[in-house]
Specification:
Length: about 575
């Protein structure tokens, strides 16, 4: 069956057929035909961002939270370039996204409006931060390209796809083209003996450890992971960008690790392990190579990639690419037939370490409870104690996030969302807006710093426009705190890291929202409670007047408890 349509109509028809709820973006000359076609689709909601990078950050967060591709539409030239960082973040976080940009007409001359010397520069610019970057040159190709794009975005390791459509293609007269058909993802198959072989390795090991990567999150396999840990009494560690793969309240959750620091017990368990099941990780990444260097254990690698991009884990006893959820389901069933492994010793060790951490934190709070400016760790502790079980906290990169990931409890996969290895500042506000749009009944918190918030604060009015009643906690230390701290550590002096920060509570009020300013730590309990009440009706900013207090790692915090004992 064929129909007459414009390219723009075909784009919107594809979005509707794929069940797209939101289009995040900003209108511009080169994509006006798409926005005009969107008017005919009342069930697709357009969220007007105030900067194109917020559009791609929002689309990436939508993909991460739902498992379905988020959609961003931006105009040519600076519009598309502005959105590049958010697309790269989606690639790093394995978030499915459809990123559509306009571009200059086919064969455009040099210095055309929104163009440079090469008329295909946008398509090439996105090649290395997407799973597929494609340029549409004929209107009739739109249905097939859109269909393939949605499939590519969710297959294997999810990620962004960039579709570039020249202005003259979008504006061309209707042509005969095939009706839109959704493509089914390719079937998933497990190797004949894969599950049995991994089960054997696990059962034969004296000290098995599970290292779970973000593929477990992307493939919605967290319940299966927890079940496997329980049956095997195997401690679970995870890379810093896979926070949420297991609840921190689970007795076998140990904590995160990175190539540059990790919790001491994590390092001890890696060194002790004689078998590591690495599930949801990619081979030859910084994390994977660091793990190899630190262990002599046998490794069974259940990969998280696409066949064209993924490679085997060199030296692993088993290395393959399959769906993490399907594999874990089969593996749990297989090991359950063998009984329940005794894990009293390792559970006791983990419990003792977690208790030491809590006592160490308590020592810190006792030290800073009466000090001004407010220590942001106190803020996070107060917040964590008041969050509902299903609350979502969107973190970022900076000192605020260091305290967030060390203190906040993880009860479900999206309790505290990390920004991933790309580390985009300014991602917390757009991410929180999307979380509230998807889950309007949940508490949604953005945990950010003054420097990060100022990079995307123009979209606070977007929160107002769409009714996203989020709470934003801002570490207001008048500087780029983490970089300032690193300068002090490495050079003994700082430069270029001071920041003139406004009164963010008044900033919120200028939009007609609610603002709460905290200058005294004794005011924290009332301030947090007040913010949660106000957020029932409006977005809220809680402005925490803080300072560049030292960053303490988990090992140093645990040592505080040892100091107390001595």
């Amino acid at each position: 069956m064929t129909v007459n349509r414009t390219a723009a109509q075909a784009v919107v028809e594809a979005l509707a057929a794929e069940g797209v709820e939101f289009v995040f973006g900003l209108a511009g000359t080169h994509v006006l035909h798409i926005f005009d076609a969107l008017i005919e689709q009342s069930y697709i909601r357009h969220v007007v961002t105030k900067h194109e990078n917020s559009a791609s950050l929002m689309a990436g967060m939508y993909g991460r939270l739902t498992g379905r591709p988020g959609v961003a539409v931006v105009t040519a030239g600076p519009g598309a370039v502005n959105s590049l960082s958010g697309v790269a973040q989606a690639y790093a976080c394995a978030s499915p996204m459809i990123h559509i940009s306009g571009t200059v007409p086919l064969g455009a001359h040099k210095e055309s409006f929104h163009g440079v010397d090469k008329d295909d520069f946008l398509y090439k610019m996105f090649l290395d931060v997407t799973k597929w970057s494609v340029r549409v040159e004929r209107p009739q190709d739109v249905p097939e390209i859109m269909s393939r794009a949605f499939t590519v975005a969710i297959t294997g390791r999810p990620g962004p796809v960039h579709i570039e459509i020249p202005e003259d293609v979008l504006g061309a007269d209707p042509v005969e083209m095939p009706a839109y058909h959704r493509q089914a993802p390719p079937p998933i198959a497990l190797g004949e003996n894969l599950v049995a072989d991994v089960a054997d390795l696990l059962w034969e090991a004296e000290h098995p450890v599970i290292c779970a990567g973000k593929g477990v999150l992307a493939h919605r396999a967290t319940e299966q992971l927890a079940a496997l840990a329980d049956v095997m009494s195997a401690p679970v560690i995870f890379p810093y960008d896979a926070r949420g793969v297991i609840s921190t309240l689970h007795p076998l959750c140990v904590g995160s690790f990175t190539p540059w620091r990790d919790e001491p017990l994590v390092g001890d368990l890696i060194a002790l392990a004689d078998m590591i099941l690495a599930v949801g990780l990619r081979a030859d990444t910084e994390i994977a190579n660091n793990l190899v260097r630190r262990t002599k254990a046998q490794i069974a690698h259940i990969g998280f990639d696409d066949e064209t991009a993924g490679g085997p884990w060199e030296g692993a006893a088993i290395s393959t690419l399959v769906d993490c959820r399907l594999f874990l389901e089969k593996l749990v069933a297989a090991v359950r037939t063998r009984g329940q492994r005794d894990g009293a010793a390792v559970r006791k060790k983990i419990a003792e370490y977690q208790l030491a951490l809590q006592r160490g934190f308590q020592a810190i709070w006792d030290e800073y409870r009466d000090q001004k400016p407010v220590h942001f760790g106190l803020v996070v502790a107060e917040l964590g104690a008041r969050l509902r079980d299903d609350a979502i906290v969107v973190g970022g990169v900076g000192k605020h996030d260091i305290w967030g990931r060390q203190i906040l409890p993880i009860r479900h996969p999206f309790s505290h969302i990390k920004e991933g290895s790309w580390g985009t500042m300014g991602s917390e506000l757009p991410g929180a807006i999307v979380a509230k749009l998807i889950f309007p009944e949940r508490q949604v918190i953005a945990l950010t710093g003054d420097g990060s918030f100022l990079m995307s604060c123009n979209d606070f009015c977007t929160a107002m426009e769409v009714g996203a009643n989020i709470i934003i906690f801002i570490l207001n230390d008048s500087g780029y705190g983490t970089i300032k701290w690193l300068q002090e550590q490495r050079f003994g002096r700082t430069y270029g890291t001071e920041l003139w920060a406004p009164n963010f509570a008044q900033f919120a009020e200028s939009f007609g929202a609610a603002g709460v300013r905290v200058e005294d730590p004794h005011d924290l309990p009332d301030a947090v409670q007040q913010a949660m009440i106000l957020a029932e009706k409006t977005p809220v900013i809680v402005d925490i007047v803080s300072d560049s207090y030292p960053v303490l790692r988990s090992g140093e915090i645990a040592e505080r408890a040892t100091d107390l004992d001595s």
